[in-house]
Input
Amino acid sequence: MANIETMLQEISYPGRGILIGKSSDGKKAVCAYFIMGRSENSRNRVFIEDGVGIRTQAFDPAKMKDPSLIIYAPVRVLGNTTIVTNGDQTDTIYEGLEKGLTFEQSLRSRTFEPDGPNYTPRISGVMEVADGQYCYAISILKSNNGDPSCTQRFTFSYDVPKAGEARFISTYQGDGNPLPSFAGEPVCIEFADDAFTADIDTFIGRIWSALNEDNKVSLFARFIDIETGEVESRILNKNQ
Output
């Protein structure tokens, strides 16, 4: 198992990342989502609250060159299900679940992002907390090693998450040209110590500190009490 802080410190550009798991005391469903940027357009963003979810917004609207692929709602909530993704497939999943489709079925209409030669993967997660029970799933839609003629679709489900453990997935495995897509299963993360998930402010602060200072843009974190359903959320933006 990996340490999320060490991992993030060693990768200058993971792109966008989703971390989902359970707190060390077993009481909270935990998630985090971050965005990073290399271009001025990508870095010109902030997270803002949008009802029970969040959305991205231009920090300086005058500098926004192309809103496609960077302006979207990363987090939405449908009933007991929290959806977190790196693009507008958040809405696709929401609408699919609302119609009775599964998480995997909802994403059949989507593919990777049309930003060749990177063909950035679409990464998504769903967390379901209900009646004192908690499970989650993670998906990645990616090109066939840079070949856009084929979409590779992987879904990983975790029906009894272990306390103090999480899974992490990102769009890229590091910097490069083209950017190397994430490969393999979501990384199994062991929270370094009980203090890491003792409270949401410690959690988000330590992840934020581990992200590359030049490339980090925004970070969202959410704790959901598995017994009561009570939600705590935090946002950190580099642009203030």
In short: The mean pLDDT is 97.
